[in-house]
């Protein structure tokens, strides 16, 4: 989502390299280190584990290219506005509401939870304190961001560089590891008592969490110097590179730890690092991983607290006159930050890493699918619309995106019915609020 003030966007000053860096920096976070335990439990094999990572990359690339056409065509910023334009204001509101209630709090909660788990493992603290450490991280970053985002933003630039270091080290050391455990990638197999469709659908849902964030680059469509070429190249090269990185690092995990030690192991990255680098080196790499998670939490906090602020600016929330205000000294939307982080803390106490990530992926891919369908709708409804960037191989790429999204949504409803109902329920909870506010606004006219 783009949070420029009116008049600040629209200057075409972002190069291909900057757009590429935005894709990579926005996507690579914690999922690459911590989803291996869940995915191996869901697939039961090294081959299908690697396959779902590749499949997640292909679907993400297709969706990124599809939604980029809308981003480049409409002179408005952010998916909320794309949905407003195509389907009506209530759809844009529901997307913003879902981000405020589910997506950003679940991201912050899930990442903070895994930070807590890794922190207690690294320093030998009792596991029961993991949630306390997770909540402390949320409160610490909230305090830093309330003081002002300038310092936090500068730190983020440094962290973006630092978080690549443990990934590169693990891949390189894994390549030269002389004691590799066999991890066949052909033929595609699944574990005992696991059905192939379930392995693919659940593994894909888990892997897609690690690709969250790619939609950020679509908000830069009106600022990229040459959107006709550079936008698609940034998405294709960026997500292709990320997919390759994810495949390599997960293959390394599979060759360092036997699959039965990986299954449901949230400490897989920590344990693999200890075996690759020894006690001291393993701890150093794990500290690098913690820094990466810290940076990811900070990114979602920086952007998430502005979602209620944006909705309130359009007078779409109760107490919009309060929520839609930012601190005059720091520019921070204080109430928006408190709302999102309070929900995140509740999620830390009630959920766990896998549940939270699956819920946010399910909700976001519901809207990603709707956005991909919007490209086809606008092609028919607005054929005269100037499109600086057109999705290549139309309609094949949009169809891949739509079918991939439908598969994710439907399979989640089938395999994780309660989780999907909670996600849908929390999203639809926004409807009575929307119609109440609309009625109130009409009465005030």
Characterize the main sheet: none
Helix content: over 70%
Number of strands: 0
- Count of helices? 20
Report the structural category. Answer: mainly alpha
Radius of gyration, taken over Cα atoms and rounded to an integer in Å: 21 Å
Report the order of strands and helices: HHHHHHHHHHHHHHHHHHHH
Q: pLDDT average, as an integer? A: 86
Which ranges are low-confidence, i.e. pLDDT below 50, for 5 or more consecutive residues?
Answer: 1-10
Per the principal axes of the C-alpha atoms, what is the gross shape?
Answer: globular
N- to C-terminal separation?
Answer: 30 Å
Beta-strand content estimate: under 5%
Summary?
The protein is built from 20 helices and no strands. It has helices spanning 16-27, 31-34, 36-43, 46-73, 79-87, 89-123, 130-147, 149-162, 164-176, 196-209, 227-256, 259-262, 268-304, 306-313, 320-323, 334-350, 353-381, 396-415, 417-428, 430-444.
Structural account:
The chain is mainly alpha-helical and 445 residues long. It is built from 20 helices and no strands. Helix 1 packs parallel to helix 11. The protein is globular.
Sum up the structure in keywords.
445 residues; mainly alpha; 20 helices; 74% helix; globular; disordered N terminus
Topology:
Blueprint: H1 16-27, H2 31-34, H3 36-43, H4 46-73, H5 79-87, H6 89-123, H7 130-147, H8 149-162, H9 164-176, H10 196-209, H11 227-256, H12 259-262, H13 268-304, H14 306-313, H15 320-323, H16 334-350, H17 353-381, H18 396-415, H19 417-428, H20 430-444
Helix pairs in contact: 1-11, 3-10, 4-10, 4-11, 4-17, 4-18, 5-6, 5-17, 6-7, 6-13, 6-16, 6-17, 6-19, 7-8, 7-13, 7-16, 8-13, 9-11, 9-13, 10-17, 10-18, 14-16, 17-18, 17-19, 18-19
């Amino acid at each position: 989502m783009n949070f420029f003030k009116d008049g600040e966007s629209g200057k075409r000053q972002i190069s291909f390299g900057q757009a590429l860096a935005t894709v990579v920096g926005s996507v690579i976070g914690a999922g690459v280190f911590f989803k291996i335990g869940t995915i191996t439990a869901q697939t039961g094999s090294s081959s299908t584990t690697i396959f779902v990572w590749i499949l997640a990359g292909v679907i993400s690339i297709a969706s990124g290219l599809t939604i980029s056409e809308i981003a480049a065509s409409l002179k408005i910023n952010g998916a909320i506005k794309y949905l407003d334009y195509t389907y009506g204001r209530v759809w844009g509101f529901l997307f913003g509401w879902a981000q405020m209630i589910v997506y950003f709090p679940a991201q912050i909660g899930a990442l903070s939870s895994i930070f807590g788990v890794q922190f207690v493992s690294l320093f030998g603290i009792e596991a029961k304190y993991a949630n306390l450490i997770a909540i402390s991280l949320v409160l610490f970053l909230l305090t830093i961001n309330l003081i002002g985002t300038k310092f936090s933003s500068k730190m983020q630039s440094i962290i973006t560089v630092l978080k690549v270091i443990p990934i590169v080290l693990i891949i390189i050391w894994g390549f030269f590891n002389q004691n590799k455990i066999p991890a066949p990638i052909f033929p595609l197999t699944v574990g005992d008592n696991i059905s192939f469709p379930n392995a693919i659908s659940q593994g894909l849902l888990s892997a897609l969490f690690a690709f969250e964030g790619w939609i950020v680059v679509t908000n830069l469509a009106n600022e990229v110097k040459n959107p006709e070429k550079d936008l698609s190249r940034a998405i294709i090269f960026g997500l292709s590179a990320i997919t390759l990185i994810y495949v390599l690092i997960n293959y390394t995990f599979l060759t360092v730890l036997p699959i039965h030690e990986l299954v449901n192991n949230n400490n897989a990255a920590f344990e693999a690092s200890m075996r690759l680098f020894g006690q001291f080196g393993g701890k150093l790499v794990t500290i690098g991983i913690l820094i990466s998670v810290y940076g990811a939490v900070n990114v979602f906090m920086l952007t998430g607290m502005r979602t209620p602020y944006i909705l309130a600016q359009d007078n779409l929330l109760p107490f919009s006159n309060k929520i839609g205000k930012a601190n005059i000294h720091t520019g921070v939307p204080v109430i928006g930050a408190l709302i999102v982080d309070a929900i995140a803390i509740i999620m830390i106490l009630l959920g766990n890493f896998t549940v939270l990530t699956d819920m946010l992926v399910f909700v976001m891919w519901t809207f990603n699918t709707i956005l991909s369908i919007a490209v086809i709708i606008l092609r028919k409804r607005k054929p005269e619309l100037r499109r600086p960037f057109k999705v290549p191989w139309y309609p094949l790429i949009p169809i891949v995106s739509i079918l991939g999204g439908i598969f994710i949504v439907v399979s989640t409803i089938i395999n994780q019915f309660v989780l999907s109902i909670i996600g849908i329920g929390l999203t639809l909870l926004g409807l009575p609020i929307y119609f109440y506010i609309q009625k109130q606004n009409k009465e005030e006219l």
